[in-house]
Design goal:
The protein is an alpha/beta fold. The protein folds into two domains: about 25-260, TIM Barrel (Alpha-Beta Barrel), CATH 3.20.20; about 260-375, Beta Barrel (Lyase, Ornithine Decarboxylase, Chain A, domain 1), CATH 2.40.37. The protein contains ten helices and 18 strands. The strands form three sheets. Strands 1, 12, 13, 14, 15, 16, 17 and 18 form an eight-stranded mixed β-sheet that branches. An eight-stranded parallel β-sheet has the order 4-3-2-11-10-8-6-5. A two-stranded antiparallel sheet has the order 7-9. Helix 5 packs across helix 6 (about 115-125). The protein is elongated, with a radius of gyration of 22 Å. The protein starts with a helix and ends with a strand. The site of pyridoxal-5'-phosphate has 16 residues, from helix 10.
Length: about 375
């Protein structure tokens, strides 16, 4: 927790649940990633945290933006981004949204299928487009699965198709999976992308851009490699596979920019034992899967918890949210321990909660509104 957040919580004791984000930490994360990969443009993945204060701070720092939808495109423009600095990076877009984004001046679009190329040609004529490759997401705590991307062979065909339909075949992208903890995982993806560049050169198309995606991890419970290690591994992979024919590169970090900048302040609603003989207590918080902690699905992202009673003896717990839905359990398999003195009314701070939380909250499930949000 940053000193600014600690001071705010002590002074204001906000109504819980409440997401509190330190924008100076957002800035620090941005600058550090910039230094680690100085040749790559940063397109902040807006979906990780689209709050206007985050977008505005990044806009002031010179960031570009990766938008997943028309409303995200509009949010970037509202934050002051020039349309030429916004990429429409979702491979799945409605024709009407493509047309509107193009009308607003957006000139860079992703695709991974023939039908999407045709939609782009019809609704964003002459735009620059890049094809997303399907790559291995092993090593990622939050893999993006086989939902996105296509094979290298398909990518070559689709980029040719794009040219034939009057679009500008601009490059290739991939995403190695979110919360990717292994810097070595970019290597295979960069190699595959380089093959596409080579094949297209033989067909008279000179690609300019390699989009290296996001995936850079945040620190939750356990340590992760420093961002510099990712910078080195990626730079090395680029030299190995592109040599002197280095394309422009960009990255689309989301989580690594905002996660550690935020904490989610919550309150214990109930501590119980199912039986006096049970060693494990159930701790129910006022925030759960439907309050924004969706990434606890399959216990994939393991948040760290802090309480005012830290230092007291601890015991094992299961941790759950407040709703009347059996799926609203955060951790039942992962080994968590909290102070034995913990009781209803205590505050619990969930660390590194600045990414993929606020906007994941249900609108009003069980009558609970989404967490409040404060940007400092
Ligand atoms: C979600 C997403 C990102 C951001 O990923 P992080 O793991 O949060 O860095 C980047 N690019 C695309 C296309 C995405 O869908």
């Amino acid at each position: 927790m940053t000193p600014k957040i600690a001071e705010f919580l002590a002074r204001s004791r906000p109504h819980t649940p409440c997401l509190v984000v330190d924008l100076d930490k957002v800035e620090e994360n941005y600058r550090r990633l910039r230094r680690a990969l100085p040749r790559a443009e940063i397109y902040y993945a807006v979906k990780a945290n689209p709050a206007p204060p985050v977008l505005e701070r990044l806009q002031d720092l010179g960031s570009r933006f990766d938008a997943a939808s028309l409303p995200e495109v509009e949010a970037c423009l509202a934050a002051g981004a020039a349309p030429g600095r916004v990429s429409f990076g979702n491979t799945i877009k409605k024709a009407s949204h493509i047309a509107r984004a193009h009308e607003l001046g957006i000139d860079l679009f992703a695709f991974d299928a023939a039908e999407e190329v045709d939609k782009l040609a019809a609704n964003a004529p002459g735009a620059r487009v890049y094809c997303r490759l399907l790559v291995d997401n092993g090593g990622a705590d939050w893999p993006l699965s086989r939902k996105f991307g296509c094979s290298a062979r398909t990518a070559v065909d689709l980029l040719v198709r794009a040219r034939d339909k009057g679009l500008i075949p601009h490059g290739v992208s991939f995403h190695v999976g979110s919360q990717q903890t292994d810097p070595g995982r970019w290597e295979g993806a960069v190699a595959r992308a380089a093959m596409v560049f080579t094949d297209l050169r033989e067909r008279g198309i000179e690609l300019r851009l390699l989009n290296l995606g996001g995936g850079f991890p945040a620190r939750y419970r356990g340590a992760v490699p420093e961002v510099e290690a990712f910078g080195e591994a990626i730079t090395e992979a680029m030299h190995r596979h592109f040599g002197n024919a280095m394309p422009e590169t960009l990255i689309e970090p989301g989580r690594s920019i905002v996660a550690e900048a935020g904490i989610l302040e919550s309150e214990v609603v109930l501590v119980s034992r199912k039986d006096p003989a049970d060693a494990v207590r159930w701790v129910y918080l006022d925030v759960g899967k439907f309050g924004g902690l969706a990434e606890t699905m399959d216990e994939a992202i393991r948040y760290a918890f802090a309480t005012d009673r830290d230092g007291d003896p601890t015991g094992p717990v299961h941790i759950a949210g407040p709703t009347c839905d059996g799926a609203d359990i955060l951790y039942e398999k992962t080994d968590y321990r909290l102070p034995l003195t913990l009781r209803a009314g205590d505050r619990v701070r969930i660390g590194s909660a600045g990414a993929y939380t606020g906007t994941y909250a249900a609108v009003n499930f069980n009558g609970f509104p989404p967490p409040g949000e404060v940007y400092l």
